[in-house]
Amino acid sequence: MSGINQKDILIKANKKLSLGILGFLLLIPLVVVLYIMEILPYTLEEIVIVCGCVLIFSVLPFFINKFLYNETFISNCCLYCLEILLLMLAYNPVADLSLLYFILPIVSLIYLNRGILHKMSMIAFAGMILVKGSKLGYLIVNGMGEKMDLNPLYTDLLVSTVEFIVLAIILIKSFEIMEDIYAKASHAAMMEMYASSEMASVDNSFHLGTQTQRKVEHSDTYDVQQFFSAIASDMEKLIKGKNKHFTLDLDNQMPVELYGRKTQLKKALSNICADLLMYNTESEVNVYVTYENGINLRKKENITMIIRIDSNTVLNKSSADKKALGYFLSKKIIDELEGDLIEINENGKTNFKIRLLQRIEDEQTIGARQQKQKSEILELKQLAIANKAEENTGNLFHSDVHVMVVDDNREARKLVDSVLSAVGVKVTGVKNGVECIEMLKTQDYDMVLIDQMMPDKSGVETVKEIRFQDSEYFQKLPIVMMSIHGGKEEAKKYQAQGFTDCITKPIKVDEIKSCLKKWIKDDYRMSYEEYMRIQNES
Is a pLDDT exceeding 90 seen at residue 196? Predict the structure, then answer.
């Protein structure tokens, strides 16, 4: 289980559950047969309504999973549709199907998420009370209680309630034990993986020389803005639609590039912030990143990075050991990174201060780079206003730039290839999304231009799979949709699905040049949010 992450779990669980719910379509012929045999005491209009509802709630999760990008929304849709179908089945007047009420909590275990298990258990319990209570209420309201003994129905409602509560307690306790085992296994696997990577690095350096050593070091070199922005983006997705707030504040005097064990650090910070955000119904978390002053920023020198996490949540050790699994793991990770994690609980708030030694790989400050980016964007805007885009010839970039073009139309690929080659950009063309994903796993690219309508995988399906790869490279890679539909509204729609930008077909030379300049920088690749913020400031 150590190789599984939450995104992979959501994707796989949503796919399986949405396909499984399609099986409820078999209820439609069953209902029709029972109606023809006069077993169901329904009118023809009621049968049509029941079959229509079964059709909608059986098919809806499948299409939502196929075309939407938000996996959390998809999981909620699948589980709610499943509960509605189960309640419709349980409400039948022919047989008592009490066991159906236990299905939703059991099925929710496939998400390996305690919050989902708790929520679905409460929803299933409310559904059981609704169905059984409505049947009992119908008999009382229509005066049938005087003609028949209702004590068995009261007893059945009480027994079902007790049984459900006992099952829910067993499920939750079993899940807690599973979580604890998973946490220990994940931590052990993480430490084993790190030890193996360290041994491999030393061995490779001994046999292959300094070139391999530089490659190993580069894998743990990270851009400070991109690193913390990725964490902020994950937290925003986590709290979307809830009464919670997450803010990130980076010291502009921080160096732009550091060297350290970024994967472990990201996991530790994400775990702490997620626990702080999810503990209360109204949570606020602020992360401030700086470094100990008093030294000159020089490449290959060490600095002490300070990460301060402030929140309105109390997260002490006793509660952390029982519930806050992420916090418990984070303390172990920080210890392994040879850093300090100081926790202060006072006045109903929890503050953390993390001190960690990191090495400078680029002494340029974040503030200085932002000023440089402003100048570049202003220059680009002036060139556009003066209509000088056609006069720019030769290589647009100082360094080598490699772009992938994904289109099943060979002539369309050749056209884009010729435009990009004319400005000094190396191009690789592939004909579908499957080849695109395989190529991205074997070689790094600076941008992907992709068509929407393709065999095997559409453009939307391809970008969805790319964005859910467990790597910062796949999250930050600029992916531009080539669409016959242009305009700001189309661009916003595609950005919501995971694309960075959108350009219109047939392709225009100046539009491609502008897109390249906007999203590919020689020294730093900006996110869409950063680009818009700097452009507005300009």
Answer: no
